[in-house]
Amino acid sequence: MKKFALFFTVFLFFAFLAAEDVKTGEYDFGDITVTLFEEREPEPEPEPEPEKEPEKEENQSCGCDVSREPDKKPEKFFFQASAGVLTGINFNLAANFDFGFLVFHSPAGNNLYLGFETDFRYAMKNWMVDDRDDYNIFEIPFQAHLTVDFKNKNPFVPYLSMWFSLGAELLLESEADSPRDSKKFKGARAAVAWGTGLNLVLKNGVVFKTGLEGYKGMYPVLLFALGYRF
Question: What contacts 24+ positions apart, CB below 8 Å, involve 16-23?
Answer without folding.
Answer: none
